[in-house]
Amino acid sequence: MAKAAENQSVEAYLRSLDHQLRNVPIEARRELVEDIAEHIDEGRERGRSESEIIAALGTPQAVAAPYLEDVLRDGNSPRLRRIRRVLGIVALVTGLFSAIISRSSDSTIVNMAFGPVELQGLSINYDYSDVFAAIQLLIFLALAMMVAASAVMKPTTARKYSIAAAIVMTVVVIICGTGLGMFFVPSMVTAWMLAGANNLKLSHVGRSKRSRTVQAIGGVVLLIPVLLSLAGLATGGVQGAGAYVYAALGLLCGVGFVLKFRLALWATCVIGAGVSIGSILDQGMLMAALWLAGIAYFYFGLYGLLWFEKRKLAS
């Protein structure tokens, strides 16, 4: 019975080690687990108990930590590759989406002193406005592809390139200003997220600290408007079913984000995308507010899905 219990303990240790190394390439992971198993067998032959051997090795987390740091430093972990691919797709989709939304607003390149002076702002001139609309779409797509390119580059090349792309997008947003510039914000945020993923050099402790910081910032950004809405409902300053719906969804997103619940993170992404789409229904200042609020919800949710450790509802 004691022998069976020891074997079970060793198997559990090796399974735990394999799980800790899940982001290490499969060949390297298999080789390390086999080396540890051989080390345990050698210890048995020398008369040491399995509990002594395991105690000398340390916890699975401690054994795996150096290998995980090496993989993250090289940027070759499956998780980081997956994150970069997701962000590359997001860059392309949001670039196209932003181009379509921007064209439905008054913030087009026709209205930004581009083109002949006598035609600036004359969107009703279809001969020229259609040409400018095509140019605007190409600009959005070209910048989106520029941002997404680092997702398929080698890590060593992607590091400097992604930072350069993020700086370019930041300059574009500043130059275009509060009109057209706000529609380049998704590409800018995605570019900086890719730059962060490509240049990640934080230890596990550092990554955990960063996640806690983002949790705190996200919690403030997502929950303060909800608290103000609830205060308005309580005092009668805000009325209508829409305010109750917003308060309920806002609480779901904000509290779920802070607690890192996957369902709430998905909901935050979906709601953010929906709010951004819905912004085209208003052509005034409310459009800008809805557009930027939707972006904030979407990217906080996306960050949580990509970087937060999974947590089950039952935990």
Description:
- There is one protein chain.
- The chain is an all-alpha fold and 315 residues long.
- Helices cover 76% and strands 0% of the residues.
- The chain contains twelve helices and no strands.
- The longest helix is centred in the C-terminal third of the chain and has 32 residues.
- The protein is flat, with a radius of gyration of 25 Å.
- The N terminus is likely disordered.
What are the main properties of this structure?
mainly alpha; 0% strand; 315 residues; 12 helices
Summed up, what is this model?
It contains twelve helices and no strands. With 315 residues, the chain is mainly alpha-helical.
Based on CA inertia axes, which overall geometry fits? flat
How many E strands? 0
Percent range for helical residues?
Answer: over 70%
Uncertain segments of ≥5 residues (pLDDT<50)? 1-5, 107-128
Q: Major β-sheet, in short?
A: none
Briefly note the structural class of the backbone. Answer: mainly alpha
**Alpha carbon gap, first and last residue:** 33 Å
Strand content bin: under 5%
Number of helices, where a helix is a run of at least 4 consecutive DSSP H or I residues: 12
Average pLDDT: 80
Rg computed from alpha carbons, rounded to a whole number of angstroms? 25 Å
Summarize the helix and strand pattern as letters.
HHHHHHHHHHHH
